[in-house]
Amino acid sequence: MSVRPVIVIAGIGNGTGTGAATARVFSKQGYRVALIARNADHLNKFTSELKETGGEAAAFPVKDYSYGAVTSVVEGIRKYQWQTPEKAEIRVALWNAAFGAWKPFLDVTEQEVHDSVEANFVAPFAFSRQIILAFQENELSELGKRGTLLFTGATASWRGNVSTSVFAAGKFAGRALSQSLSKEFGKQNIHVAHAIIDGGILTDRSLSRHSNPEDHKQFAENADIRLDAESIAKSYLYLANQDRSAWTWELDLRPAHEKW
Ligand SMILES: NC(=O)c1ccc[n+]([C@@H]2O[C@H](COP(=O)([O-])OP(=O)(O)OC[C@H]3O[C@@H](n4cnc5c(N)ncnc54)[C@H](OP(=O)(O)O)[C@@H]3O)[C@@H](O)[C@H]2O)c1
């Protein structure tokens, strides 16, 4: 019996960003796709889109990114009966969800502090725990590993700035988590990798933040100044396809004209 791998992706938004692009790229490679997000309408619409293009996908809505909600949703994915009888194994997982607020320190609210800690640290911690437990049940693949756990980071994962106190603090925590897991579980042939996305990604939401018409036009049309979500997804596929003799913990990606 052939084993079709499963990828679990948390954070799909409205289907125009990195989470959705990763689902499309891995689906085309024959992965079953388990999708986690909070907005059930967006999630179901996107899951149907994947199925219509020949993919196998299942939607797992969560009410929030609390430790308990994330733990039970991944437990459900681990037990999920895919429609064909062949065995399914979780081989790749991506924590892509995030909470961000960009404002002066003195304007940050208590709620924003909690939201950042929850989405950027508590939830990926619970997610990683379930994913590592699932990987530990896997035999070694032809790449010599049990699974690949990926994290989407940002410039704020390694550099604070004037308006990023609450966002960078959360993103630093996610990076620290991924590095610690990479060191602890490498010895079990579990690959953990973190991607610093060092620039704006073209999504519906990021485009809407460019309120100045000229900036909006530039961001929408000039491919040299922003990242394409599908290109990021292709890098995630590259990470998942690395064998254990030479694998990456951290990758940084930026558009050609980023002023870094
Ligand atoms: N966009 C950028 O310019 C940029 C730049 C660098 C790094 N990143 C990182 O990339 C990851 C997100 O990827 P993405 O920006 O390409 O988008 P994405 O994959 O569509 O993910 C969007 C994320 O934002 C959440 N979200 C909350 N409200 C939303 C709304 N109204 N519309 C859409 N999404 C909403 C989503 O949560 P639900 O799925 O639960 O709804 C999801 O976690 C994050 O880790 C972020 O820190 C983004």
UniProtKB/TrEMBL annotation:
Q: Which organism is it from?
A: Rhodofomes roseus
Give the classification, highest ranks: Eukaryota, Fungi, Dikarya, Basidiomycota, Agaricomycotina
Signal sequence extent: none
Q: Which parts form a coiled-coil structure per UniProt?
A: none
Record Pfam families: adh_short
Show the InterPro entries listed in the entry: NAD(P)-bd_dom_sf, SDR_fam
- The protein's superkingdom reads Eukaryota
Recorded protein name is Short-chain dehydrogenase/reductase SDR
